[in-house]
Amino acid sequence: MSSALVYALLGGALLLAAVLPQLLHRWALSAPIVLIAVGLLVGLLPVSGDVLVDPVALRPWVEHLTEVTVLVALMGVGLALDRPLRPRLLASWASWSTTWRLLGVAMPLTIGGTALLAWGPLGVAAPAALLLGAVLAPTDPVLASDVQVTGPTLEGGEEVDEDDEVRFALTSEAGLNDGLAFPFVWGAVFLATGAPAGGVLRWVGWELVGKVVLGVLVGAALGWLLARLAFRAPSPSLRLAEVGQPLLALSALLLAYGAAEVVHGYGFLAVFACAVTLRSVERRDEYHRHMHEVVQRLEMLLTLVVLLGLGFSFTTGLLANLDWRGVLVGVALVLVVRPLAGYLAFAGHHRSTRTVGLDRRERLVVGFFGVRGVGSLYYLAFAAGTASFTEERWMWSTVGFTIAVSVLVHGVLATPTMRWLDGRRAARAERLARAEGARG
């Protein structure tokens, strides 16, 4: 394929990315579906020649590209959340209870269910089965924009707004579980290479707890310092919020990730914690919206490249090792394992419980819309570069297929489902308003 044709295709893809949001907002069709389809069609064109995508050979490129894409998405997700998390206030922790249930119940159940399905009935080796569960468990902060909060609204106070609990739950879950999948990825690596000194205790104490705490502390500390610099620095020339310089968001992203990785904490968690902490200071300032817009534009460009490449790879080699086992894992995860795990995370609780705020239908939506995407590609590339897995090529095909199923199913259903929920919320608000008027 000539370089001129590559430029032309990229230009057309950028134009497509610019107009898709306006074209598709009324239709049950997401931008990721269209972008992957375009990449797939390019792979089928004669101009593609005999290009063969080998994910094993391209693993370092895949790892770094998806790593940057996820990092940018995590910063955007953290800045988009209006609900504060005040560590010293028990009520603030309780207002995030939907998030904690998804992380503490749904995510382990998804990892365990997927791993057991692959290892037991399908005969996949234990290290690969655990790795498959770990890389497919996190919901994706990149491809789930249709079911997440849209950005900082700047009108919120400290009170909890339960009107959009579904979007909040899915957004905050995506921000945190990309980092919390790492301990289980390391568990799979240890199974493949041999446990380090300390065995399970070392894994629990360091991989599961120590690195998580370090990542959160580093990110929160940097977010606090940068927020004070941007909003409350003694010198006006240092108060970046006053001049509207939004590049602070990218600086915060790089500083948080780099500092956390230097001290061996989880950088993904650090970036999200940094963004949430930044957002918690001067929450009604327009500067948050400026930072979010810059991050969102960069995320759009990176997502464009990833999705076009993913679609292209579907017809040029990524699915070469897909078999019925991979198809079963992908379909079962999207349609059974994650929805069931998400629903069980809220078993026994009702919308009348203020700290949960989800009724039965909303729990079904939260459980179902666990979008799989770019993060899964990163984790698989990272693990495959750290240890040797005999089923690596099969896992690449299985993960690629699962992402395709998720993008298609969730992309088609997201718009009508969220409209339906919005309609229910509007009707409920109207009923409450009428009841208040009648009492008045």
UniProtKB/TrEMBL annotation:
It is a multi-pass membrane protein. GO terms for biological process: proton transmembrane transport. Keywords: Antiport, Ion transport, Membrane, Transmembrane, Transmembrane helix, Transport. GO terms for molecular function: antiporter activity. It comes from the Bacteria. Residues 15-420 form the Cation/H+ exchanger transmembrane domain. It is found in: Cell membrane. GO terms for cellular component: plasma membrane. The keyword RNA-binding does not apply. The chain crosses the membrane at residues 6-24, 31-49, 61-81, 102-122, 180-201, 208-227, 247-278, 298-320, 326-344, 364-382, 394-415. Its main location: membrane. It comes from Phycicoccus endophyticus. This is Cation:proton antiporter. InterPro entries: Cation/H_exchanger_TM (IPR006153).
